Amino acid sequence: MVSQTYRHGGRQYGKALAAFGAATALAAGAAAPAAAASHDGEAYVALGDSYTSGPGIPQQSGGDCARSSVNYPSLTAKKLHVSSFKDVSCSGATTDDMWRAQGANPPQLNALGKRTTLVTVGIGGNDIGFGGIIGTCAQLSPTDPAGAPCRKQFAAGGTDQLVNRIDAAAPKIAKVLKAVHQRAPHARVALVGYPAIMPDNGVGCFPAVPIAAGDVPYLRDTEKRLDAMLQQQARKAHVRYVDTYRPTVGHDVCKPAAERWIEGAHPENPAAPFHPNAKGEQAMADSVTGAVRRR
Fold first, then answer.
1. Where is the SGNH hydrolase-type esterase domain (predicted)?
2. Does 74 map to a domain?
3. Is 24 left (phi over 0), alpha (psi -120 to 50) or beta?
4. N or C: which end of the chain has fewer CB within 10 A?
């Protein structure tokens, strides 16, 4: 387990990950992209959370923001040959951090301007508290490894709290996209979804990944619902949505280390727990680049 606290989905992610040891003994659209004009001269700004910044993947910079030199914005910028590039993504970022500083990291929207011509945004997971969700599911998994103790807790009383959280995050995403348009009125904007974390077939690998059998499809469906909400908000805001889920199916947390693009509770490749490794960031960059290049 990496020593630094990384947070995809909430301020308590460090505590959630620490609970793993105590809790256990423990693919983008099918159409080929059309030829595109040169992107030389593009002024590209990347906004986002830890799935954008790439915590734990060498080389790291940005202090607590934990940005990797091979995260998907850096790889996209290189592939598009942009004239200028600024990555202000930061681990633990929520939609609120578009407007407020995270430690030494200024409000992310401050990086935008009238000369910005390309913006990618990867945000929303922290707004639903995904890190805390994973931590809770890991803690509960030994109590009923063959069942769905996490789903039982979050859906107690007949109302799924996670569905409500996703619905509540939708207007926040809309507000971010509106602010991006206002601050960078000449920019093309792409909203980037989240990759396939849990096995898409719903079959887990307890105890290697401490998630109970019934909670694997529950978490998979929760992430799909989050991505669907992001896609809907992108459509409403008239920005491009980048699907990174489908291209990463089959490279989830339960795959062998050589085939894995998303690390599990105890990363075997450099990355934060339950985050993309270098191969995962490359796959996300391929999806982003393809989406940006399509006419």
1. 46-283
2. yes
3. beta
4. C
Q: Other CB atoms closer than 10 Å to residue 145's CB: what's the count?
A: 18
- In 161-289, the DSSP E strands lie at 188-192, 240-242
pTM score: 0.87
Label residues 184-205 b or e (16+ Cβ within 10 Å = b).
Answer: beebbbbbbbbbbbbbbeeebb
pLDDT, tens digit, 9 for 90 and up, residues 119-154: 999 999 999 999 999 999 999 999 999 999 999 999
Q: 92: phi > 0 → left, psi -120 to 50 → alpha, else beta; which?
A: left
Residue 2 within a domain: no
The catalytic residue positions are 50, 275
In a domain, 77, yes or no: yes
83 Rama class: left (phi>0) / alpha (psi -120 to 50) / beta: alpha
**Cβ atoms of residues 6 and 50 within 8 Å:** yes
Task: Return the structure tokens found at 52.
Answer: 């954008």
Question: Hey, is 8 helix, strand or coil?
Answer: coil
Q: Return the closest-CA partner of residue 210 out of 221, 201, 200, 198.
A: 198
No. of helices (H) and no. of strands (E), the chain? 8, 7
What is the CATH number for 94?
A: 3.40.50.1110
Name 171's Cβ contacts closer than 8 Å, sequence gap at least 6.
none
Q: What range does the domain containing 239 cover?
A: 13-30+38-293
Amino acid letter, 94 = T
Q: Does residue 5 belong to any structural domain of this protein? A: no
